[in-house]
Amino acid sequence: MDSILNTAKTWLTDFFDADVRKEVQHLMDTNIEELKDRFYKNMEFGTGGMRGVMGVGTNRINKYTLGKSTQGLSNYLKQTYKGEDIKVVIAYDCRHNSDTLAKTVAEVFSANGIKVFLFSELRTTPELSFAVRYLKCHAGIVLTASHNPPEYNGYKVYWTDGGQIVPPQDGKIVAEINSLSFEDINFKTNPSLIQLIDKEVDEAFINESVARGSFGAKGKDDFKIVFTSLHGTSITAIPEVLKRAGYKNVTVIEEQAKPDGAFPTVKSPNPEEPEALSIAIKKAEQIGADMVVGTDPDSDRLGIAVRNLEGKMEILNGNQTMVLMTKFLLDKQKNKGFKGNEFIATTIVSTPMMEVMAKAYGVEYKTALTGFKWIGKMIKDFPEANFIGGGEESFGYMVGDFVRDKDAVTSTLLACEIAANAKANGSSFYNDLIACYAAYGLYKEKLISITKKGMSGAEEIKQMLKDFKENPVVSVAGSKVKWIEDYNTSVAKNVITGEEKKIDLPKSNVLIYETEDGTRVAARPSGTEPKVKFYISTNKPLAKVADFQTVDAELNTKIDRILSELKLN
C-alpha cells in the first residue's frame, strides 16, 4: 500500500493540472480503495493496444498516460527513422473525450517535430489502417475502446504497413515508454505540424471498400437491409459504401445513428451481444428485411442477423459469418484460378472448420494468436503470398489486404453481396451456411466470458487459469483428451502417446484441450478487459442438409454438457 500511496503522491506535483492534483488529494483523503485501483499498476499494452477506464491515475486513460505513450512512441520513431521526415495519422471514435485525447496525442507528436495528419471528425478504425499506407505514414493511432462499456477509452498503434504493432516493435516501444517519467512528456505543441484531413482520404477508402467488397451480386433491388451503427463511427462509411455498391433498400436505425459515447439505446455497443441488435431486428421483422447488420463503435466488428429456416431473424456468431465469407471468397478465387500462393487465416480460438475448408480448396491455412494484429503480421511476413480473407470468432473479418485490421465496412458489403446473390438464386445466407456444413461438417462454438474487476479480480483470473492448467481436464463430454496445447510453454503434448510438438507462435497465456472426437476447450484472459474467456468448439458430420436441425440440436446438448462438466454454466 505504501508504494501505491507514493505513486499517487507524485501526481500532486506542479507538472500535473490543478484539477488532477485536487482529485488525487480527494481520493487520498476519502477513498483509499478507489485510489488503490487507479494507481496499483501502470496502464499496459494488451492484444488490442492500451485500453481502460478513463480517469485520473496511472491505471487509467488520461492525457498523461496517453501523453507518456505518445512520447515513448515519438522517441522510438525518431530512433528508427533517423533523418526522415516522420509522419503519423490519428483517428478517433465516438467515445467521451476521444476528440480531446486525440488532440493531445497530436500535440505531443508535433512537440517532438513529427508531422501529424489528424482526422477532423470521428472515423472508423479500418479507415485509419488504410490511411497509414495511403498517406505514406510511419505510424498511426486510433483513439477507441472498441466495444467496451462507455467509461472506457483506448489507444491503438499502427505501424508503416497499416497493421497494429507486433514484435519486435511493440516490445521496443513499450520499453521506451516504461523508461520515461511523466515529466518527460513534451506538451509544447507545434501547430504548424498538425494538418486536418477528411474528404480526400474518405473518398479513397470508400472507393477501395466498394471495389474490394463488390462481386456483381444479383438481386440488389429486391434485397432489404437494416443497418445500425450503434452510435458509432460506421455511420460515416457504411451507408455510403452500400449506396455506391447499388443497394437501395437500406433502412438506417435513426435512434442509433447519431454518434454518442454514452450509447444510450443499448446495454453494450457490442454486436456480439444479442441485445445490441434488438432494435434493428425488431425493425427488420416489421418491414420484412432480409438482413440486419450492426457494427461496434470503431467499426471493426460486425454482427449480422439473417432469416433462419423458420423465417425468423437469427443472429449469427463470428465463426458462422467468417466461414461463409471465406468460402465465398475462395469460390471467387477458384473461378479466377488458384496460383498456388493463396492463404486464409484465423486465430487459435476460432472454429477449426476454417482449416477443413482450406484443405478442401488446396490453399494454405495459417493460424495466429488471438488479436487481429497477428493476421496483419502474416501479410507483412509473407509478401509473396496472396491473402484471400480471414477473421476471428469475435466478429472481426478482413477482405484482402488493402486494410490491415478487421474491417466491418468492407465486410458488411461482402455479407450483403453473399446474401443478395443467394436470395436471387432461390437460397439465402442461412441456407448457404447449412450447405457449407453439409460439405465440411457442422461445427458449433460457444464463448463464455467471466468478468472479474479490479486488483482482486486480476488475481482471481490468474488463479482460474492456473487451476485450469494444474488440474488437467481428462475427458470432455465423454471423449478422452488427446492433446494439451500450452501456449505459455510453446508445447503441444499428446497425453495418450506422450508425443510433444513445438508450437511455432509467440508465447501467450492460452491453454487448449482437444479430445479424440475433435472437441476443443480453450481458456485465456482477455487482453483488453478484466475477463477470463472459455472457448468451446465441437463438431459432427452433416450427411445431408435435411439433417441440420437434428444434428444442430445434438451439438447444442453436447455444449450444455460441457458447460456443466466445467462448471461454466
From TrEMBL:
Pfam family name, one: PGM_PMM_III
Family of this protein: Belongs to the phosphohexose mutase family.
Keyword Zinc-finger part of the UniProt annotation: no
CDD domains linked: PGM2
Protein's organism: Cellulophaga tyrosinoxydans
Alpha-D-phosphohexomutase alpha/beta/alpha domain mapped to chain residues: 43-182, 216-305, 317-435
Record bears the keyword Isomerase: yes
InterPro entries xref list: A-D-PHexomutase_a/b/a-I (IPR005844), A-D-PHexomutase_a/b/a-I/II/III (IPR016055), A-D-PHexomutase_a/b/a-II (IPR005845), A-D-PHexomutase_a/b/a-III (IPR005846), A-D-PHexomutase_C_sf (IPR036900), A-D-PHexomutase_CS (IPR016066), Alpha-D-phosphohexomutase_SF (IPR005841)
Gene Ontology biological process terms, A to Z: carbohydrate metabolic process; purine ribonucleoside salvage
Protein name: Phosphoglucomutase
Cofactor(s) the protein needs: Mg(2+)
A GO MF term: phosphopentomutase activity
Keywords carried by this UniProt record: Isomerase, Magnesium, Metal-binding, Phosphoprotein
